[in-house]
Specification:
Number of domains: 1
CATH superfamily: SH3 Domains
Order of helices and strands: HEEEEEEE
Number of strands: 7
Distance between the termini: 13 Å
Shape: globular
Mean pLDDT: 87
Structural class: mainly beta
Radius of gyration: 13 Å
CATH class: Mainly Beta
Strand content: 35-45%
Helix content: 10-25%
Length: 108
């Protein structure tokens, strides 16, 4: 099992409460090949002189409510893609949607 899969397993196991998303996506993998299910990304390029955060939303678009904020240096797993929006899992198993412009793939 890859290090990426082990890290993801620990992240999923630590999830206590799931966020309610207006547009849910699956984090279940039905294959043994990690890269077919998800990829690992860094958040980069956010302007600290501006708002300095990347909005996490309940669905793939700016019309959906903002449910959280993520920052430069955070790592996220991308499970779904809908146009320029990515369904992500981050921190302790939280899920949401964010724009791909500030996500840089590092594995998967």
């Amino acid at each position: 099992m890859s290090r990426l899969a082990l890290a993801l397993g620990a992240l999923l196991a630590s999830t206590a409460l799931a966020q309610t998303l207006d547009v849910p996506f699956s984090t279940k993998c039905t294959t043994e090949i990690d890269s077919e299910c998800y990829s690992l990304h860094d958040v980069r390029g956010l302007d600290s002189r501006s708002d300095g955060f990347l909005a996490v939303r309940s669905g793939p678009g700016s019309r959906y409510r903002m449910i959280d904020r993520i920052f430069n240096g955070e790592r996220v797993y991308v499970f779904a893609i809908h146009g320029p929006w990515c369904g992500i899992m981050y921190r302790d198993g939280l899920k949401g949607w964010t724009h791909k412009n500030w996500l840089y793939q590092i594995a998967g």
